[in-house]
Known about the structure:
Layout: H1 13-21, E1 36-46, E2 49-61, E3 64-73, H2 77-80, E4 84-94, E5 97-108, E6 113-121, E7 124-131, E8 161-162, E9 175-179, E10 184-199, E11 202-217, H3 224-230, E12 235-241, E13 247-256, E14 261-272
Antiparallel strand pairs: 1-2, 1-14, 2-3, 3-4, 4-5, 5-6, 6-7, 8-13, 9-10, 10-11, 11-12, 12-13, 13-14
Keywords: Signal
Signal peptide: 1-33
InterPro entries: DUF3108 (IPR021457)
Amino acid sequence: MRRSDDRPSRFSPFAAAAGFVALTLAAPGGASAESLRVGGVYAVTFSGVPIGRATFSLVADGGAYSVKIAMKPAAVGKVVAAGVFKAEAAGWLHDGSVYPARFLLDSVDTDMENRVSMRLADGAVKYSEAEPGLGRMEERVPITDSVMAGGILDPVSSAVAFVADPGSKDVCARKLPIFDGWTRYDIKLSYEGTQPVDLPTYSGTAVVCAARWVPVAGHIPDKPSVVYMKNNRSISISYVPVGRSGLMVPYSISMKTLYGTLNVEAEDLKMTGPLTASAGQ
């Protein structure tokens, strides 16, 4: 197995898409008939070329949530990479916040495998194991206890927004403190505008947020990709409300990279359960 710093120098749009889609969301068996459910299919393109498709599901039931995402290459994407990406998270929704309890990631590409197992409680990481391990540790910003507490989110749980006024620009007035198993970073959101959404089973308005990636720990400060992403002003995430439930989920993601622009956009979203009647029903 390759170490994370021994990966090929060529850029893999599929791998980048898989990683960034994780800023998006199947359902576990046994969920009650009153569960709130969201399911969707997302198209992934790189510089306008289709490279993958992602499936997404969210179940919220009795204050608990479970989300899963799967992605595989499609069309031209099979030439770029022949891998698959799966991630899932579960936790609790209360006091207007998301509290993850576990996170699992399993990603297999043409010549690398990435796996993460994480447990969280009370907004702090209690256990984390990631493969492959990081190298060049003397060059990295140390990951200390202080940066691993205080409302930490895993990448999948960070996609679930819980706001008092669903559909409002409040969804953009947030900073997301994320740990992915290797690095700690923040995603800072700010309000950018709205856009209409008209899908086969969902119609409404998406709230568009500008996003900034801010490295905190575990990264190599002068690494070109880190420097580029830190200064990247071309990242946006748009959210749609899940009816009147207070939840919002991503509709689209756009990110400029060193090699082109990555776009992830929903082809369809289906929402069922309590308080979802106003969301495309």
